[in-house]
């Protein structure tokens, strides 16, 4: 029997599906083999993540949603069976079957001959089952609802994703009594998370923390207080979210209305309501591509914007059991925006995230646990954290009132069980570890007194043992007053003289030893040993001596180049099969702040591993000598390639541009701690033996901790012509400064000319300005002049120029992230015209 007409069983044209793939920012394998593309799944059909002879999924008739195998990483090594918004950047999951158990290539979704819908992994083990039999087909509706239909035409699904939600509701979806939404573990981990929204059997809508391994509920932290009613949580097709009470069928007096009546229209915006990993239930909107009414509305950026948050401030979430919004020993800081719909989880001083990529696991002390066998007062002190608290008496093992702050500190300092104390209004709460429900905001008040070890690294407490000679001298002197016979007097006098001489010689010996120790320590200060900082030595970097590098570089005789912070020399390690190296020697001028600069650079580069970054072999930190040892890049810098006598081919320039972008994406989003380079320019892009582009010179890089997102303009860094405008303003510096510099370099790669050419006509002297004018005048071909290969590839050329122009917008918020820039460069996402451009 044919499926009902409202399921839109007719497949869309193959060209539409192809364009859909390009605009979804998904790898080609996600909707593979377009000749087999379908918009429903019939008995005997098999879907797999890519593979010939089967399709990986399909789009809804409207193109707003897609269903199939969603890749969890760029390498296409693991997948979720999922439904997602197809036109958002990035694509946004709305339902998934196997969040706790992603599958690998070789897995498949089967609609068997018996009408069972089953997901099987590459070992042939069943991962998920819709628990239906007799299904005729499965289809994805325009509302984003995946349905499994029977052979009759009643129109009632045997199973539907709207009836088995994960963490998200969509317009038209209803959460009936007993139904739940479960948060993900994190934004990037779709395993079952720590919070749940429950339409309870009693008639209350509640938010409750959940024990992740067992699923046991903790104490409710938000509820409607509507017990005794027949209830449904309704997300209307017009985008209103309300809790229906009684038998009513719409929002009104018999409902708790959550969404404001002025909520954006579903005609112009995508809507979703999601319980997020931080425990808040939020409604989001995203402008639909091409909507005429919002195309020029700057107040709606091309991203998901929260229009509702329950609770409004997640940092106010308090749970008697469990860690709260953030992990144990972590604390929550709300956003400074008017809606306070976001927050950050931070570690207190001298604590670090156990796993920076999984911050919900909390923070651990950077020091050894306290020992009850030691004197606490001599080893520990306090860090004061204003307007910060870890509340609830379950973690208080002593409370004092009335006391002053000094006594509160003393009470915590003298015992080994106390990890922190909270002082407010004469009360002192002593806390044991781990701490929970941490929050820091102006409304908290009081302060936390965090107990941390003193920074006492000197050995001034060390004492020499008393000399045995001194002891005997003292004893003999005390007994020399005994009355003796006259004939023994000369012996006593002689003995006294000998003892006195011995004491003198002993004093001289002690003085000589002390002087030798002082001289030794003085020499140690003048000739500082190689750094033993464990955070550096633990990075598998080789520690070089200065003499070793001096010999390797033939006394630093072969200079490769120099910059503001140092000079680079070519060298060879004869002990390692004549390995060629590049040694960067920091200038003395930089040594005034080189301790931090050097340490940051070593830590940053030592933790990076990417094919588009120059690899660091090791370092030298000996006395006043600080050097970095890199792999040698045989093909020089991008400068010599672009601005040399021969113009590189268009295909080579395209490849290099993408390689630079991928290296920056890694620095910004994929390495363990975000790195802002701050000086992206052709001189800092090197080419290896295979002419692969590698980003180099992290001497100006600003290493950010995991709990930071911005740094301030303490001093302007970078090179004229590549520096983002915000360096010259009293505004925060973010990774968008690198995006701006990349945009400039991208234009140089396209045009094979420098960003500033003072010998050119005034309208062409500044490349960024000229590119904007060429776009306005619809004369992009002028930028490449007689480059026939580039002109023959006009679609890609236009796309690259548009990306460069977006990257060089004055307002940092208008610039794309490096991830989105790559998607646009690769043609996975459509590139819109900037607002000031009137024609393409």
From TrEMBL:
GO cellular component terms, semicolon-separated: membrane
Matching InterPro entries: Bulb-type_lectin_dom (IPR001480), Bulb-type_lectin_dom_sf (IPR036426), G-type_lectin_kinases/EP1-like (IPR051343), Kinase-like_dom_sf (IPR011009), Prot_kinase_dom (IPR000719), Protein_kinase_ATP_BS (IPR017441), Ser/Thr_kinase_AS (IPR008271), SRK-like_kinase (IPR024171)
Enzyme class: transferase
Coarse class of the protein's main subcellular location: membrane
Positions of the Protein kinase domain: 554-829
Keyword line: ATP-binding, Disulfide bond, EGF-like domain, Glycoprotein, Kinase, Lectin, Membrane, Nucleotide-binding, Receptor, Serine/threonine-protein kinase, Signal, Transferase, Transmembrane, Transmembrane helix
Keyword Transcription regulation set for record: no
Topology class, membrane: Single-pass type I membrane protein
Enzyme Commission number(s) of this protein: 2.7.11.1
Subcellular compartments: Membrane
Signal peptide residues on this chain, from the entry's feature table: 1-32
Membrane-spanning parts: 491-518
GO process annotations (BP): response to other organism
Residues that bind ATP: 585
Bulb-type lectin domain: residues covered: 38-161
Single GO MF annotation: protein serine/threonine kinase activity
Reactions catalysed, as given in the entry: L-seryl-[protein] + ATP = O-phospho-L-seryl-[protein] + ADP + H(+); L-threonyl-[protein] + ATP = O-phospho-L-threonyl-[protein] + ADP + H(+)
Cited PANTHER family: G-TYPE LECTIN S-RECEPTOR-LIKE SERINE/THREONINE-PROTEIN KINASE SD2-5 (PTHR47976), G-TYPE LECTIN S-RECEPTOR-LIKE SERINE_THREONINE-PROTEIN KINASE LECRK1 (PTHR47976:SF108)
Family statement: Belongs to the protein kinase superfamily. Ser/Thr protein kinase family.
Name the record gives this protein: Receptor-like serine/threonine-protein kinase
Species assigned in the record: Ananas comosus (Pineapple)
This protein's encoding gene: LOC109720364
């Amino acid at each position: 029997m044919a499926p009902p007409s409202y399921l839109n069983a007719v497949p869309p044209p193959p060209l539409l599906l192809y364009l859909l793939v390009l605009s979804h920012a998904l790898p080609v394998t996600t909707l593979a083999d377009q000749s087999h593309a379908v918009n429903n799944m019939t008995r005997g059909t098999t879907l797999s993540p890519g593979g010939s002879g089967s399709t990986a999924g399909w789009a809804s008739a409207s193109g707003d949603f897609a269903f199939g195998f969603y890749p969890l990483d760029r390498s296409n090594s693991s997948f979720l069976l999922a439904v997602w918004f197809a036109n958002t950047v990035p694509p946004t999951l709305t339902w998934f079957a196997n969040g706790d158990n992603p599958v690998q290539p070789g897995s498949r979704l089967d609609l068997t001959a018996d009408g069972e819908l089953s997901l099987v992994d590459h070992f042939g083990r069943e991962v998920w089952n819709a628990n239906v039999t007799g299904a005729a087909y499965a289809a994805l509706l325009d509302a984003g609802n995946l349905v499994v239909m029977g052979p009759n035409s009643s129109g009632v699904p045997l199973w539907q994703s709207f009836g088995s939600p994960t963490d998200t509701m969509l317009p038209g979806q209803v959460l009936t009594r007993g139904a739940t939404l479960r948060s993900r573990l994190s934004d990037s981990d779709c395993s079952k998370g720590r919070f749940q929204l429950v339409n309870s059997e009693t008639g209350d809508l509640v938010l409750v923390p959940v024990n992740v391994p067992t699923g046991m509920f903790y104490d409710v932290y938000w509820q409607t207080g509507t017990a005794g009613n027949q209830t449904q949580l309704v997300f209307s097709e017009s985008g209103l979210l309300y809790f229906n009470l009684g038998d009513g069928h719409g929002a009104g007096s018999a409902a708790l209305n959550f969404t404001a009546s002025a909520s954006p229209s579903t005609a112009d915006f995508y809507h979703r309501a999601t319980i997020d990993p931080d425990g808040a239930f939020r409604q989001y909107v995203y402008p639909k591509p091409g909507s005429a009414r919002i195309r020029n509305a700057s107040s709606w950026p091309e991203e998901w914007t929260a229009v509702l948050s329950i609770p409004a401030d997640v940092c106010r979430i308090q749970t008697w059991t469990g860690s709260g919004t953030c992990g144990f020993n972590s604390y929550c800081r709300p956003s400074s925006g008017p809606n306070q719909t976001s927050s950050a989880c931070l570690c207190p001083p001298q604590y670090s995230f156990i796993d920076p990529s999984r911050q919900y696991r909390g923070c651990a002390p950077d020091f050894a646990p306290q020992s009850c066998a030691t004197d606490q007062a001599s080893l520990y002190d306090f860090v004061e954290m204003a307007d910060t608290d870890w509340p609830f008496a379950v973690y208080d093992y002593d409370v004092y009132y009335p006391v002053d702050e000094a006594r509160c500190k003393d009470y915590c300092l003298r015992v080994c069980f106390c990890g922190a104390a909270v002082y407010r209004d004469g009360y002192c709460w002593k806390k044991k570890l781990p701490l929970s429900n941490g929050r820091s905001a102006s409304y908290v008040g009081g302060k936390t007194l965090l107990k941390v070890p003193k920074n006492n690294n000197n050995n001034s407490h060390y004492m020499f043992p008393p000399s045995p000679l001194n002891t005997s001298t003292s004893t003999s002197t005390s007994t020399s007053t005994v009355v003796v016979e006259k004939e023994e007097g000369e012996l006593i006098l002689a003995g006294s003289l000998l003892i006195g001489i011995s004491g003198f010689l002993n004093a001289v010996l002690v003085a000589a030893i002390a002087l030798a120790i002082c001289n030794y320590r003085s020499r140690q200060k003048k000739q500082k040993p190689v750094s033993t900082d464990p955070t550096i030595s633990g990075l598998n970097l080789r520690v070089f001596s200065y003499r070793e590098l001096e010999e390797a570089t033939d006394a630093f005789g072969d200079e490769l180049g120099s910059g503001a912070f140092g000079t680079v020399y070519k060298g060879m390690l004869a002990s390692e099969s004549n390995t060629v190296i590049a040694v960067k020697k920091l200038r003395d001028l930089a040594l005034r702040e080189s301790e931090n600069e050097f340490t940051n650079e070593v830590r940053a580069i030592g933790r990076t591993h990417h094919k588009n970054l120059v690899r660091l072999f090791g370092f030298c930190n000996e006395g006043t000598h600080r050097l970095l040892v890199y792999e040698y890049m045989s093909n020089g810098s991008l400068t010599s390639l672009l601005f040399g006598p021969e113009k590189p081919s268009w295909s080579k320039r395209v490849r290099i541009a993408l390689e630079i972008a991928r290296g920056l994406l890694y620095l910004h989003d994929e390495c363990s701690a975000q790195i802002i380079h701050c000086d992206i320019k052709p001189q800092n892009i090197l080419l290896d033996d295979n002419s692969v582009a590698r980003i180099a010179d992290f001497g100006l890089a600003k290493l950010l901790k995991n709990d930071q997102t911005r740094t301030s303009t303490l001093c302007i860094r970078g090179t004229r012509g590549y520096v983002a405008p915000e360096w010259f303003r009293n505004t925060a510096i973010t990774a968008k400064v690198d995006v701006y510099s990349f945009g400039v370099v991208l234009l140089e790669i396209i045009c094979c000319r420098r960003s500033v050419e003072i010998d050119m006509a005034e309208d062409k002297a500044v490349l960024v300005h000229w590119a904007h004018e060429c776009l306005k005048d619809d004369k992009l071909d002028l930028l490449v002049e007689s480059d026939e290969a580039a002109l023959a590839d006009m679609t890609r050329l236009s796309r690259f120029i548009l990306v460069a122009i977006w990257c060089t917008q004055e307002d940092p918020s208008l610039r794309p992230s490096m991830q989105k820039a790559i998607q646009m460069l690769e043609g996975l996402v459509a590139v819109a015209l900037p607002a000031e451009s009137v024609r393409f």
